[in-house]
Specification:
Strand content: 5-15%
Structural class: alpha+beta
Mean pLDDT: 82
Low-confidence stretches: 17-21, 49-72, 199-204
Distance between the termini: 67 Å
Number of strands: 4
Helix content: 40-55%
Length: 317
C-alpha cells in the first residue's frame, strides 16, 4: 500500500484502466486487493520464500490443495496460476486469460471437492478461488461442464417445455407476468416433495411460494445486510432485487455472503442449480422433486424422480 500511496499513478479504482501496472483496492472483495502490481509483489515474495501459506495441521495450503495436477502443468505452474487467479482483476479485458487459467486449475478444485466436507469446502473454495462468481457465474458453469462432459445445454428443449407447461396449466398463477417465474411456480406446485404440506389457497396469505429457492427483496435494500441477517441455511438461495415474482438484479446467497449473478433470470436460476454441484451440496429435501425436474429433464444429469416422471406424462397427455 505504501508504494501505491507514494506513486498515486499506479492506483486504479477501475478494473479497465489501461495502465501497465495498477493497484485495484478491494478488487476481489473486502480486503482482497487486485491488479498487476499487487500480483507481481505477491509473486516475487513467493519466489523468495518469504510467504508461507498454511492449512490446519501445519500443512501447506497450496501443496495439499493442489496435490492433484493437470498432466499439462507442473505443480509450480499450477501454484502460480491459482495465485494469479486470486489477485487478477476481473474485467472484460482479462476474461479470456481468467477462463483459460480456470480450466487449467479444475483438478485443484476437484481435489477440494473430494477431500473437504461441504461446510469446510465452501470456505476453502471461496478462499482459494475468490473469482468463482465473477462474470455472472460463468466460471461455475465451466466446472459444471467438466463434471458432466456429455452435457448439452439445449435452450430449445427448455423453451418447448416451458410453452407446454404454460399452455397446459394456464389456469395456474395467471397474474404472474414473468413467464419463467410462472413456470417455476407451476413446477413447484406439480412436483411437491414427500412430507411437504400443500398450501390451502382458501387461507393463503400473500407469500412467496418459492421461499428457500428464489426470494425477493426491495430494490433499495442492502443485499449484504440482508444475507448477514439471513436465517441459518447452508443451501444456496437465489435473491432478486425486485417486487415479488418480478425480474431484477440477481444474487446467489451462500452462507453469509451474496454474489451478483446478473439480471437475466433464467441464466441466474441455472447458476443456482450449478452452485449446488460446485459445492457438493444436496438439494433441500423439501425442494428435491422441484429440482429433480431440472436436473433430470432439462439438464439430463440425474434420473428424474417418480413424481417428476408422472408430471412429464401429464404434460405429454
Amino acid at each position: 500500500m505504501s508504494l501505491v500511496n507514494e506513486y498515486a499513478s499506479l492506483r486504479s479504482k477501475s478494473a479497465d484502466l489501461p495502465q501497465a501496472l495498477w493497484f485495484y483496492p478491494d478488487g476481489s472483495g473486502p480486503g482482497r486487493h487486485s491488479g498487476k502490481l499487487h500480483y507481481h509483489i505477491e509473486y516475487m515474495v513467493k519466489k523468495n520464500h518469504k510467504q508461507i501459506h498454511r492449512l490446519r495441521n501445519e500443512h501447506s495450503e497450496f501443496e495439499e490443495t493442489h496435490s492433484v495436477v493437470n498432466d499439462s502443468s507442473t505443480g509450480e505452474e499450477l501454484h502460480d496460476m491459482i495465485t494469479k487467479l486470486k489477485f487478477i482483476v476481473p474485467s472484460d479485458a482479462s476474461f479470456d486469460v481468467i477462463k483459460t487459467d480456470w480450466r487449467k486449475t479444475v483438478e485443484a478444485r476437484n481435489a477440494l471437492r473430494k477431500r473437504e466436507k461441504p461446510e469446510d469446502l465452501i470456505e476453502n473454495m471461496i478462499e482459494n478461488f475468490p473469482l468463482l462468481f465473477a462474470f455472472n457465474g460463468s466460471l461455475i458453469s465451466l466446472d459444471f461442464v467438466h463434471m458432466f462432459p456429455e452435457l448439452i445445454e439445449n435452450n430449445n428443449k427448455w423453451n418447448l417445455l416451458q410453452d407446454t407447461i404454460l399452455t397446459k396449466f394456464k389456469h395456474l398463477h395467471p397474474t404472474v407476468n414473468n413467464q419463467f417465474i410462472r413456470s417455476l411456480l407451476i413446477i413447484k406446485d406439480k412436483n411437491p416433495s414427500r412430507g411437504v404440506k400443500r398450501v390451502n389457497k382458501g387461507s393463503q396469505k400473500i407469500t412467496n411460494l418459492l421461499e428457500g429457492i428464489v426470494e425477493w427483496i426491495n430494490p433499495e435494500d442492502d443485499i449484504h445486510k440482508y444475507v448477514a441477517d439471513y436465517r441459518n441455511m447452508k443451501n444456496p438461495v437465489m435473491i432478486i432485487k425486485a417486487q415479488l415474482y418480478a425480474e431484477g438484479d440477481s444474487y446467489i446467497r451462500i452462507g453469509k455472503r451474496a454474489f451478483s449473478i446478473g439480471y437475466e433470470i433464467e441464466e441466474a436460476f441455472n447458476t443456482l442449480i450449478k452452485t449446488h454441484y460446485f459445492f457438493n451440496l444436496k438439494f433441500e429435501p423439501s425442494h428435491a422433486n422441484f429440482f429433480s425436474f431440472f436436473t433430470g429433464t432439462v439438464f439430463n444429469v440425474t434420473k428424474s424422480s417418480t413424481t417428476v416422471a408422472d408430471f412429464i406424462l401429464q404434460l405429454n397427455s
